[in-house]
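Hi R.,

Here's the chain you asked about this morning:
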Amino acid sequence: MPCWRTHLRFSTILNESLHFEGREREQFLFGSIAPDLNNGYIVDTAYKASHAVTHFAGKEHWTEKLFYKEYQQEIKAKNPFCLGVFFHIYIDMVFNENFYSEILAPKSEEKIANDEYRIKKQKDFAVFGRLSKDYDLHFAFPEETLEVAKIVKEYKFSKKDLAGVEKYFDDIKKYEQGNPDYKYNYYNDDYLEKLAHSAVESFRRLYCA
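And the predicted structure, written out as tokens:
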């Protein structure tokens, strides 16, 4: 799925319509990366939950509607953290569905395991993340952000987890300084840029009117 900086960039673009500022902006942007945090892969959180739990995946398919069903009152009230989480799940779904319908389906007859495609897909999304290199998240209001995040009962975060988020963004900048070589497997900048902007516009039309 898109990397954290991609999520932050397009959440920032979405926020041009939502107009969250200060504490609420921080809560919204934290929500836009929060579904990945308790998986424990990017930051070694004390509490861990499966991807199916944190991203509200159904038994047969993955859809943002499961999160909406559970937290529609908060979404309609424009709770910043819930909207951030909701948008993360939505844009993940858009990217995921595009990969399976446009990239993997035409290759269904090839004798290559789906996991190989999935790994290459994730590398492509990481390459795309370089266009969002100026986006990161540091917490000016950690206590309040953690308190608001409790509204989503599937997640559990601590101050240490927030510090881990900040360290991730600091470390990735150092890493990229020594790794300037970026190559796509399936996609290109223009394609993914259009896909992400399309997700922003459809989400705005469906849920932010």
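The two ends are 26 Å apart (CA to CA).

Let me know if you need anything else.
M.
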